Amino acid sequence: MKTRVNIILLAAILLFISGMGCKQELLNKPNVINTNAPGPVTNIKAVNSNGKAVLTYSLPSDNDLSYVRAVYETSPGVKKEVIASHYTNTMTLEGFGDTLAHIVKIYAVNSSEIASTPAEVTVDPLTPAFLLAYRSLKVTVTFGGFNVACNNPTNENLSIVTMVDTLGNGTYVKTTALDNIYSNAAVITGAIRGQPALERKFAFVVRDRWLNHSDTTFVTLKPLFEQKLPKNWSNFVLPGDATMLNPGQTDVRNIYNGTLNENWPNVMFTVETASTPQMVTLDLGQAHVLSRMSVNPHIEVGNNYYVRGNLKNFEIWGSNNPNISGALDATWTKLGTFTVIKPSGSAYGTETGADQTLAKAGWPFDFSAGFGAYRYIRIRNLQNWQGSYFMSIDEFTLWGQ
């Protein structure tokens, strides 16, 4: 008798679970299957812009309308689909790769996935961003590579693809340090470095996020010779130069000892009570034309870099015959004013992975072309991340010839 009762209870439980499964399955389906197609979308209007078009329209009055679907080609043979909820009467069609007329078919779709007859509208997108950028693309030779610049007035996400004919046979490939340039800035600028001082043919293409791409520009370039300067430097102390926080430990020599991401006290760190911009002076041993530099910040407590005395706004000065009074006078030439940009733009004390990756690699800066060769270099801190004048640097590196 007991066995029979258990069997009945087990059967009841299985029946209940089975019923629950059916109910769960039904939750994902419309309660009523509507095989009647909804009415079409009407009163369609298009506003064309660069590489895209914005549609507005009137929805049909069907009670079970679910969404509106637009089907179109961004370029011949490349189809794209956009869906908009029934709670809105507008949608944006993106990714057009040309300025040709494009026919767009628009369907109203009900909850049973039954589509209306298509309504059609023709859109005429304006010049896509990648073509605007390509038309303004300029490439100029610099130390160890070249600079690339173009206009991007619509702030579209673009990439400038660079390749080189290494064998001189018309085959263009990617090589070490020949990275693409990615940006959505209104004016895209980028530097390609690490190229040998050889005359070679380079190819440049502008591409957008839908993989539309421009024609190819072919340019023969010979980058200027560049090398990382050997750090056989010394500290050239002048009146007015900064006082170190811990003399004999946190000295200037720590910024050219060739070791990155060192811990305290193997960094340069000046007194925190400084009330004016602080300077330190280096003797490079001989005059060099400078092409670029890298500043590695000191890693602070909490594993932060964009804090305390690390450089934020600073200047670099050059001289071959500095005034021994220490005055920053006509014996010095300002080689540039530089600002460290935090990639994330996050609040003080908050740093993303991208922020820290850049800091660990070293904040990179280029020197403008046209300056002569200088033996003595002065680093002048205008403002640190704390908003005061003391400064800390882990490593300082220069390139040039």
TrEMBL record:
Family matches, as PROSITE patterns: FA58C_3 (PS50022), PROKAR_LIPOPROTEIN (PS51257)
Give all residue intervals belonging to the F5/8 type C domain: 217-398
Q: Name one Pfam family in it.
A: DUF4959
**InterPro entries, A to Z:** DUF4959 (IPR032527), DUF5000 (IPR032164), DUF5126 (IPR033431), FA58C (IPR000421), Galactose-bd-like_sf (IPR008979)
Q: This chain belongs to which protein, by name?
A: F5/8 type C domain-containing protein
Q: Which organism is it from?
A: Mucilaginibacter gossypiicola
